[in-house]
Each structure stands twice: as C-alpha cells, then as structure tokens.
Specification:
The complex is a heterodimer.
Chain A (H helix, E strand, L loop, with lengths): L1 H12 L11 E6 L14 H10 L4 E3 L6 E3 L2 E6 L5 E6 L13 H12 L4 H8 L5 H7 L8 E8 L2 E6 L6 H5 L9 H7 L13 E7 L3 E6 L12 E6 L3 H9 L5 E2 L7 H5 L4 E5 L4 E7 L9 H10 L2 H8 L4 E3 L22 H10 L8 E3 L5 E3 L1 E3 L11 H14 L5 E3 L3 H9 L5 E7 L5 H9 L13 H11 L4 H17 L3 E7 L2 E5 L2 E2 L15 E2 L1
Parallel strand pairs in A: 1-10, 1-11, 17-18
Antiparallel strand pairs in A: 2-3, 4-5, 5-7, 6-7, 8-9, 9-10, 11-21, 12-21, 13-19, 13-20, 14-20, 15-16, 22-23
Helix pairs in contact in A: 10-12, 15-16, 16-17
Chain B lengths: L1 H9 L1 H18 L4 H6 L5 H11 L5 H13 L13 H36 L4 H15 L2 H15 L22 H7 L3 H38 L2 H8 L4 H38 L5 H10 L3 H29 L7
The chains are: A alpha+beta, B mainly alpha.
C-alpha cells in the first residue's frame, strides 16, 4: 500500500504537457533583476531591455544598426546653425493609461529630466535617484544644461533649442533613457513609477514578481509594429550555466549572458540557435605618460607589434571576438576602414626597443619624479564584455611581450581600487575598455581624448586630436563628422597613443522556435518583431 | 530550568553586539571606496561625493556605528542603495521562500540521514556501512554549486522530469497570502499549484540537503556505535529483547541527543548553502537576493541580511541548547 502511495506522489510530480498558452508567450532569460522600470532613472541593460518594450522615444535606432529612424516623432527638422530642432509627433498615439501622447506630454518629460525644481525631478533626487544620463548627455541640469528651451509650438510639434549645436543630439534622444513616460502615471505614482511603468510601447506592463519575472502583454492599440506574441515574460536567472540549462529544457525561449565556453554548446545543439549582437565594445591597453620609457613612441609601438591580438581573440573569446584596430567598433559610422593595423612581429618589436635604447629589453620603468620600479601590467579583476577573461588575456599578452623582451609583472586589484588607481593616473600600464551608449562616434572618442592630460587617461595629451574631436561635435552633417572621426582614429594610431585589442559581439542564444529577434548594438532592442512558433 | 534559559539567552547579547560591529565595519574593511565600487568606471567625483553622503560615509566612524545600531534596534535596516526600497520589507517578503527551502532540506536530511546512520551502525563494517560512509563522505565534500548544476542538467535538461529553477512555472496565476507558496496553495485548496510548487522544490531541496544529510548520517552512526557498546544495551539484549526493540526503544533516544546539536548547527550551513542553491535554482529567497546585492554592491542589503541571518543562527542554536537541556536530564541547570 505504501509503495502505491509513493508511486502516486512520484507520478504526480512528473511533468504534465506544457500549457498551450505558452506558445504565444516569449520567455526571455535575463542575467538578473531589473533595478526599476522608469527609463529616465535606470542605467543598466537588464532594466532597459524591459523598458524598451513598454516605452518609445521620439526617435529610435534602426534594427541592428545605430542609424536613427522615426519613432514617436514622424519627422524632424534642424535649423542651419544646428541649434533648433523641431519634432513633429504622430497623431492618435495613446499611452497605456489612455491619455494622449501630445506635445505637452513630451515637453513635460523633458522638463522632468532637465529642471531640478520639477516636482517629479525633486522627489526622485530626495529618494536618492538621479537623472544620470540626462546629466551625462546634455551637460547637466537647469542652466548648466546645453538645452536652453523646450516648447510645444502646437498640439503635436515640439521645438528644442540648444545653446550650441550638439552633433550626437539625435543619437542621444534614441537612447532608452529618453523614452517618453505618461505624465499622469508619473504624477500618480511618484517615485514608485518605476514599479508601475506606463508608456506608449508595443507591450503593456502587467506584473513584476520580485527576484522572479516581469510580465508584459501585447498592447492592442500599439501605434507601430503589431507585436507577434501575446505575452512577454522576462525571467531572472542569475547563473549563466543554469540559464542555458533552462533554455535547453525548454523553460525559456531565449537568453543573454552566455559563457564563452558555452557558445560552442549552443552552436552544436540542433534545437538552439546563436545570435551575435553587433559589437559596441572595445578593450584596450593604456599607457601612463608619466612613465619616461613609455613617452617614447617607438616603445609604445614595440608593445603594439609584440602582442598577437588575433591569437588572443581566437583563443579566449569563444568565437565571438573581433580583432580591434581602433577605438570605434566596425558598426559605427565613424569607423576607419582604411586604417592599417600594426603588424604582429616580435622581431620588429625588439628592434624598435633597441632603437629606443633598450638593448636588453624593458623590465624597469622610471616615473617622471625619478622613481624607478619594475614594469607592472595591471589587469582587471572583473570580467567585462570587452575582456571576458581578463586574467587569461593579460597572461597571454604578458607572454607575448616577454617574447619581444618586455618583461612585465602582472598585478590586479579589487575592482574599486583598480578604478580608483586608474582615475588618479597611478597605473603605468593597464587594461580597460568601453561599451558605447548611443552608437555615436563622439561617445567613444570624446570621453577619452577631449580633455588632454587628464589623469584618468594616463595623462595622455594630444591637443590636435582633442581639437579635431571638439570640432566634430559642432557639425550636424554626418558625412562631415565621419571624415573627422576617421582622421582622429588615424592620428591616434600614428601616435600609438593607446593599443586597441578586441571588440566583442556578446552572444545570445535562442530556441529554434524563435524568429525575428533583432539584436541592437546598444543592447536595447524591441521585442515586437519576435515570433514563437 | 528558567534561570538556565534566561542565563543562556543573555549570552546571546554580546554575540549579537559582536556581529553588529562586524557587519557594520565590513563596509569600511573592503578595499577601495564603496561609492566608487558601486558607481563603476564612469563615476564622476561629484557623484562619488553624493553617494558617500547618502551612505553617511562622510561622518565620523563612531557616530556612524551608533546611528546604525539605533536604527537597527528600531527595526530600520536601511534603504536599498540600488532600488531605494526598505531592506526589512524586502527581507520579510523573501524570507518565506528561504524558510520553505531550508525546512524541506533539513527535513529531507533528517529523514534520510538518521536511518542511514542507524543502519550503518547496526550493520557495522558491512556493505551497507561502507556504502553509507562513501555516500556521507561524498555528500560532505561535494560543492553544492556543482551538484546543483548536475541535478538540473540531469533531471531538468536530459530527463525533463523536473524544472531547472523557480518556485512555479512561467505564467502560473497564483496570489500567495504569506509567500509560503505550498502552505498558501494548500490552504486555498489549489492543488495544481501545490503540485507545481513541490515539483520546483525537489531539486533545490535535494541539493541543499546533501551536506546536512551526510553530517547527520555520520553523527548518528558514531553516536549509535557508542551507545550500542554500553552495558544497558547488553543487558537489554541479554533479556532476549528483539534487536529492533533494543535499537529503537533503548539505543536511539540516547544516540539522538548529540545529533540534535548537529542539526541545530546545520541551520547555519543551510543558510550559507541557500545563497548558492538559490542562485543556481533562481529561487527567489534571501540567498539569491544577497548574492545579487553583493554583485551590485548594495551594502545596505548585504548588511541587513547578514545581521538577520546571524540572528536566525544564534536563535536556532539557543533553542537547540534549551531543547537539549530539556531532553537530557543529565544536564544541570546551574
């Protein structure tokens, strides 16, 4: 009798067929819990992947590129001096709460981001939140901002006046942070709006189960593309291997955050498909220009010729890396295709060192104040998309350098200490990288090279490069700007100012049942094209 | 007895004070500026200063500690730095999930560990004993992380018998009352949800149970062997009592006393193990929450949860000690 009972319980625990409703649901495995769902406040990819489905901006990135196309604004004009932008909104667009999307609502959103005395700005700051990206992309709040006026000229037209032309203006507006929220809903929920998001997007927010999942459903009144699935569930599965297990078990349909060693597992599974996100990230090696030996261009060039980037990318990026020749990834329109990279040649590197006077190779450095110490190569203690295995990559690079006579000791530090030391210019030679925010070349180049001599950038001072980049910021014609960015990359290369090692294309894995997932380089794509068969 | 209980309870106070000092100081002991760690590679000096102010890191350290203890005593564990929610509310919401998992694990460990230990002692040096000893050794030395992954891979991916994570299937509509899902669903008479929740519980509970199971089995065996060699057992056997009666009626009660202490201590391991188990099985309890908070450098949560876990551990051990004293007449209360 007891055996029968046990058998019955065991049988009850065995799976039943999946519910038929699941086929109309797209279940995506995310790497963690969203911080919150108010796009103006968040800065992380996990949250923005969800807010992108609920909200729309004035403009958006097109498909898998960073080119700009219309969204809530059907069209726009810019004045000849590049300072006045006029956006014409589409008609009959409604927020999920039924209120109309009109010029007043857009102006309200801008004022919330921009003005520190706006009640819905003030309350966020009091609660310890900031409008970080507004500050970063538009120069600050109130009078500090480069925006001088935002006004509704009629019910569906907005005019934005800038203090000076800002070349990446449209690219900035396409970022998820500048998606338009329902003013009524923000006023209703205040600082809790991030738990009750209301936008105009293809999906409406349904529920957020903390530490588990966020559920969205298709918006029947969607103004743009009609979604192809009824529901979206974004499940929080922290562990990379376990997320893959859930995908293989058919519990989720797609996932991000694949371990480099699992890329092959997905490739060889007949039920799965691999998608590589277009690269938007670059890993580099930077020099301190307070180190006398590294002030010599021949020495820096020796480093460049000593490192076998291709071997590193082939061995340590799980087949998703690309050799970098410059700071911008190839998907950016400022990328310099003509740029010819340094050839990998330990012999030439050794010759260059000899020419610079280091006949016995280089193992000791001299700081400008005369202090001598062994050459230390600092590597990151934390994995980032541009350096997925920082320790192994650093070891490979150190081995390459040794072949050319450069003996560097490897050292790391806890992430905060590492960033602190880098900020204060204390690292003689180190690795780090960048992931782009808005797909604009300015976002890559200017952050590093517009302030010559900054401690943060190892005191690298290249005035003509900075001037060129600042000039590019004032132009509005993309072709003119692209020319300057290509030139900037060439200047940086000719000076061997910094060594660019690799770009990475973060892998995504999907069940073969999924069609139409378009991964955007910025990491915030729309799920309205996704189908589950 | 009551005086003993009171005295024993008072010893908890200095322990908890020590814990509070440790938990408080850890934010100052980790290398680097916590504000920089939280903000990452793009932090501006203004932003760093702002976060330092928000965390109260710009005040004298003693003042920070006094303020901290004062708040904790009033039940205020602070506000999550990343999400801005009160730590205590979040903690209480997630606690039932962890309790559900940990109690299932300890239940499993006791139900299997004690019989294995007894069998191993009674049939000493037999095949049963060898097998159970190998099992115990493996159980103790197997990393939960690896075991969890293997269980999920085998039962979830290969056999597809059980889900690889979470407490319920995607899209299960269920409104829990207390967040003890199995209990809530049973009280609501929602049997499909009970079944679904049980299916989700099997693998994480099994993974979490391995270490306590092995420890309990080993302890029971050792303790049983000791009891079985005592004179009164020989007397009982000489009286002609059947072996089963000797073991269950005469030996087991005494042999289980030390096992009780071990079970109490295992609660600490369970809470530590829950961090890994919950992370692997996406189990939305305190462990996963702490893991995520460590990653996002949300010190308020890490501090609050560490203190909470320490209090639980100390309390459970206090209760075990008191039970032990109540169960064993040889323990004097003075």
């Amino acid at each position: 009798m007891r055996f029968v009972e046990i058998a019955l319980v065991a049988a009850a625990l065995l799976p039943w067929p999946a519910s038929p409703a699941l086929a109309q649901t797209f279940v995506f495995g995310a790497q963690g819990e969203p911080v919150q769902l108010d796009p103006a406040i968040i800065t992380d990819g996990i949250s923005s992947r969800i807010t992108r489905q609920i909200f729309d901006g004035l403009v958006k990135y097109k498909g898998a590129t960073t080119e700009i196309e219309p969204a809530l604004a059907e069209k726009w004009d810019v004045s000849a001096d590049g300072k006045v932008w006029t956006f014409h909104l589409g008609k009959n667009v409604k927020f999920h709460d039924g209120h109309p999307l009109d010029a007043a609502a857009v102006v309200w959103n801008f004022e919330r981001w921009w003005k520190s005395n706006h009640p819905q700005h003030e309350n966020q700051v009091k609660a310890g939140q900031t409008f970080e990206y507004w500050e970063a992309q538009f120069g600050g709040f109130d009078d500090k901002s480069m925006v001088s006026k935002v006004e509704a000229t009629d019910s569906h037209t907005i005019r934005i006046t800038l203090k000076a032309p800002q070349a990446p203006f449209l690219a900035n507006l396409a970022m998820f942070v500048f998606d338009i929220a329902s003013p009524k809903a923000v006023e209703k929920w205040g600082t809790e709006f991030g738990k009750h998001p209301v936008g105009t997007g293809a999906f409406k927010f349904v529920e957020w189960k903390p530490n588990q999942e966020v559920i969205l459903e298709a918006n029947p009144d969607s103004w743009g593309v009609k979604p192809k699935v009824k529901r979206i569930v974004v499940r929080n599965i922290k562990d990379n291997s376990q997320r893959l297990a859930a995908l293989k078990a058919g519990e989720i349909h797609g996932m991000e955050g694949l371990n480099p060693e699992d890329v092959q597992v997905v490739r060889s599974d007949p039920n799965l498909q691999l998608l590589l996100r277009p690269t938007n990230t670059t890993g580099y090696i930077a020099f301190s220009y307070k180190v006398k030996e590294l002030q010599d261009k021949r020495v820096r060039q020796a480093f460049a010729q000593a490192i076998n980037k291709k071997a590193i990318v082939d061995a340590l990026y799980g087949g998703t890396g690309l050799v970098a020749t410059q700071l911008q990834p190839p998907a950016l329109w400022g990328y310099n295709k003509e740029l010819k990279d340094f050839e990998y040649s330990p012999d030439k590197a050794r010759d260059l060192l000899k020419q610079a006077g280091f006949t016995q190779g280089l193992s000791e450095i001299t700081w400008e104040d005369g202090k001598k110490e062994p050459l230390v190569f600092w590597y990151m203690s934390r994995s980032r998309p541009y350096f997925p295995n920082p320790k192994e990559i650093a070891e490979a690079m150190a081995a390459d350098l040794a072949k050319a006579g450069i003996k560097a000791q490897l050292q790391t530090a806890e992430w905060a200490v590492y960033l602190d030391k880098r900020k204060n210019g204390q690292l003689p030679l180190y690795m780090l990288g960048w992931t782009g925010d808005n797909g604009d070349p300015d976002n890559f180049l200017c952050y590093f090279f517009c302030s010559p001599g900054a401690a943060r950038e190892g005191f690298y001072s290249n005035r003509s490069l900075a001037d060129l980049l600042l000039r590019a910021q004032t132009l509005t014609n993309q072709a003119d700007r692209a020319k300057l960015y290509r030139q900037a990359e060439q200047m940086l290369h000719d000076d061997a100012g910094r060594l660019f090692v690799a770009h990475n294309r973060p892998p995504l894995a999907f069940s073969k049942k999924v069609r139409g997932y378009v991964a955007n380089p910025t990491g915030s794509e729309y799920f309205d094209t996704v189908e589950v068969r | 007895m009551w005086r003993y209980a009171l005295r024993r309870a008072l010893t908890v106070v200095p322990v908890l004070l020590g814990v509070s000092v440790l938990v408080f100081s850890f934010i100052h002991l980790i290398p680097g500026d916590p504000a920089v760690t939280m903000l990452g590679e793009r932090a501006t000096p203004e932003k760093v200063a702002e976060v330092r102010h928000l965390l109260g890191l710009d005040r004298p350290i003693l003042e920070q500690y006094v303020l901290y203890v004062g708040k904790v005593l009033r039940g205020d564990l602070g506000i999550s730095i990343v999400r801005g929610d009160p730590v205590l509310t979040d903690l209480l919401r997630r606690f039932p999930a962890t309790v559900e998992l940990a109690t299932s694990a300890i239940f499993l460990a006791i139900c299997l560990g004690i019989p294995i230990g007894i069998g191993s002692a009674v049939w000493r040096n037999s095949l049963v004993d060898s097998l159970s000893r190998v099992f115990a050794l493996t159980g103790v030395s197997m990393p939960i992380f690896w075991l969890g992954l293997m269980l999920a891979w085998f039962f979830g991916v290969q056999l597809r018998w059980l889900p690889t994570g979470f407490r319920l299937d995607t899209g299960t509509a269920f409104e829990p009352w207390t967040n003890f899902i199995i209990l809530d669903a049973a009280l609501q008479g929602n049997w499909p949800v009970v079944r679904d929740a049980l299916r989700h519980l099997v693998l994480p509970a099994a993974a979490l149970a391995t270490i306590p199971l092995a420890v309990i089995a080993r302890m029971t065996r050792a303790s049983m062997l000791e009891v079985l060699s005592q004179d009164y057992i020989r007397t009982a056997e000489a009286k002609g009592l059947p072996q089963g009666a000797v073991i269950l009626r005469h030996a087991l009660g005494n042999a289980l006393l030390p096992v009780m202490t071990v079970v109490g201590l295992q609660v600490g391991h369970l809470l530590a193990g829950a961090i890994l188990t919950e992370t692997i099985f996406s189990w939305p309890g305190i462990g996963l929450w702490v893991y995520e908070s460590i990653e996002s450098r949300d010190y308020a949560i890490v501090q609050g949860a560490s203190l909470f876990i320490a209090v639980i551990f100390v309390t459970v051990n206090l209760v075990t000690d008191l039970l032990y004293a109540a169960a064993d007449p040889r323990i004097k209360y003075d």
